[in-house]
Design goal:
The chain is built from six helices and no strands. It is an all-alpha fold. The chain has one domain.
């Protein structure tokens, strides 16, 4: 396998700059990096939990997922990307099933790329966080 950057760093920087003016949002990058270890479906699902309670944070997670989906399309792996209503249990189950049904090799590649993408998000978070805005939440 040869390395291709897929502009992960540039895409991460774009996301951080897009969301940095909202209190406590880009600090979610650290939580994203930790969540990768639990799998694609849990990473994807975190947006559903946050969108209702903390919409700005949920939107950051959703934007990150959508950016990741585009990155993986460039790599030749098609991930589900449709929006899901958090109150529609069958929709959530179908989406999660699509992620679990990915070939194991594709899952591994996705998790490796997502790890690197989140590492870039964390790096840019550290560079662009605003003091006094509460981005360590």
């Amino acid at each position: 396998m040869t390395w291709k950057s897929y502009d992960l760093d540039q895409k991460a920087q774009h996301l951080i700059l897009k969301h940095r003016d909202q209190k406590g949002v880009i600090g979610q990058s650290h939580k994203m990096r930790i969540t990768v270890a639990y799998g694609l479906e849990r990473f994807w699902g975190e947006q559903l939990r946050l969108l209702e309670k903390e919409p700005a944070k949920g939107e950051y997670w959703r934007d990150t997922w959508k950016s990741f989906v585009k990155i993986m399309q460039e790599a030749g792996i098609k991930l589900p990307q449709e929006d899901v209503n958090r109150n529609n249990t069958p929709q959530i189950q179908q989406f999660a099933a699509k992620l679990w049904e990915l070939p194991i090799e594709d899952q591994r590649i996705c998790l490796a790329v997502l790890t690197q993408f989140c590492d870039s998000l964390v790096w840019w978070t550290q560079r662009y966080k605003k003091s006094g805005v509460g981005d360590d939440e």
